[in-house]
């Protein structure tokens, strides 16, 4: 299972979290987020991470040339689209960045929200199902109704996101069986400042092993 820790803001924490077992790290490229990082800072972190860790840039309603420019500056291996990007936009991005994993976030409000997967299935690699919050695009710390995923088959591999933490992860995995999980505020002391003890606890709960910090 893939484990993505999102909203990394410094190299020390990024390396420690990769060392603990995260398979992907997320970097917020949305200017109004408290976890926003400049491309230069992302590049300085990504160039010092183990090569096996996926580096995902999180964007929301950013235009195509800007995404492409940031990916080229920062050695991102994936782009996560968290806004109202259309399937046509995803298609264009994919043709410009064919080797970059394209993840489309879907805010899950009702079971109808999941129907969106049909129109994006051919133009993205992966989905990320997150909580719907009217005022915030992501990193909300809110869960959604996981029952909505019962009986749903995604046309692409998918991450479960939204309000996950070491206390609810076992229940979430049991109920939803995702291909990956994505956590941000549930393993933080404050926005952008990850709590390594909470991250170690997450891995302990998932894999039933002790981790040294
Ligand atoms: O994290 C942010 O600040 C953010 C801002 C704008 C768009 C997306 C953002 N985060 C996207 C993520 O992938 C988060 O990990 C995801 O929403 C889950 O967050 P949380 O509920 O805090 O675990």
Keywords:
single chain; 213 residues; alpha/beta; TIM Barrel; 8-stranded parallel beta barrel; two-stranded antiparallel sheet; 7 helices; 10 strands; binds the ligand O=C(O)c1ccccc1NCC(=O)[C@H](O)[C@H](O)COP(=O)(O)O
The spatial strand order of the largest sheet comes to 1-2-3-4-5-6-7-8
The name of the CATH topology is TIM Barrel
Whole-number mean pLDDT: 96
- Note the total helix count: 7
Beta fraction: 15-25%
CATH architecture: Alpha-Beta Barrel
The percent range for helix content is 25-40%
Sequence of secondary-structure elements: EHEHEHEHEHEEHEEEH
Largest sheet: 8 strands, parallel, barrel
Structural class: alpha/beta
Bound compounds: the ligand O=C(O)c1ccccc1NCC(=O)[C@H](O)[C@H](O)COP(=O)(O)O
CATH homologous superfamily name? Aldolase class I
CATH class: Alpha Beta
**Low-confidence region ranges:** none
Shape: globular
Total DSSP E strands: 10
Please give the alpha-carbon distance between the first and last residues. Answer: 22 Å
- Overall tally of structural domains: 1
Q: C-alpha Rg, in Å?
A: 16 Å
Describe this structure as you would to a colleague.
The chain has 213 residues and is of the alpha/beta class. The chain has a single domain, classed as TIM Barrel. Helices cover 30% and strands 22% of the residues. It contains 7 helices and 10 strands. It has helices at residues 11-20, 39-46, 64-74, 87-96, 116-120, 169-176, 196-207, and strands at 2-6, 24-28, 54-59, 78-81, 101-108, 126-131, 158-160, 180-183, 188-190, 193-194. The strands form 2 sheets. It has an 8-stranded parallel β-barrel with strand order 1-2-3-4-5-6-7-8. A two-stranded antiparallel ribbon has the order 9-10. β3 (54-59), α3 (64-74) and β4 form a beta-alpha-beta unit. α1 packs parallel to α7. The longest helix has 12 residues, at 196-207. The protein starts with a strand and ends in a 6-residue tail after the last helix. The relative contact order is 0.17. Ligand LARABZUK binds at residues 6-7, 26, 28, 30, 33, 35, 58, 60, 82, 130, 137-141, 161-164, 182-186. The ligand O=C(O)c1ccccc1NCC(=O)[C@H](O)[C@H](O)COP(=O)(O)O binds at residues 6-7, 26, 28, 30, 33, 35, 58, 60, 82, 130, 137-141, 161-164, 182-186.
């Amino acid at each position: 299972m893939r484990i993505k820790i999102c909203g990394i803001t410094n190299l020390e924490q990024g390396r420690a979290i990769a060392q603990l077992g995260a398979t992907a790290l997320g970097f917020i490229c949305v200017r109004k987020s408290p976890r926003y990082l400049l491309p230069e800072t992302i590049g300085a972190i990504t160039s010092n991470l183990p090569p096996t860790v996926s580096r995902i840039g999180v964007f929301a309603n950013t235009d195509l040339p800007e995404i492409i420019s940031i990916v080229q500056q920062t050695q991102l291996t994936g782009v996560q689209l968290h806004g109202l990007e259309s399937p046509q936009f995803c298609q264009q991005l994919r043709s410009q960045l064919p080797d970059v994993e394209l993840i489309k976030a879907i805010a899950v409000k009702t079971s109808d929200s999941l129907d969106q997967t049909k129109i994006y299935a051919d133009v993205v690699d992966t989905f990320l199902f997150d909580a719907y919050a009217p005022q915030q695009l992501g990193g909300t710390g809110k869960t959604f109704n996981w029952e909505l995923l019962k009986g749903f088959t995604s046309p692409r591999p998918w991450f479960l996101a939204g309000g996950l933490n070491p206390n609810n992860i076992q229940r979430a995995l049991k109920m939803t069986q995702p291909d990956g999980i994505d956590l941000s505020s549930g393993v933080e002391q404050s926005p952008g400042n990850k709590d390594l003890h909470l991250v170690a606890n997450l891995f302990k709960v998932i894999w039933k092993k002790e981790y040294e910090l």
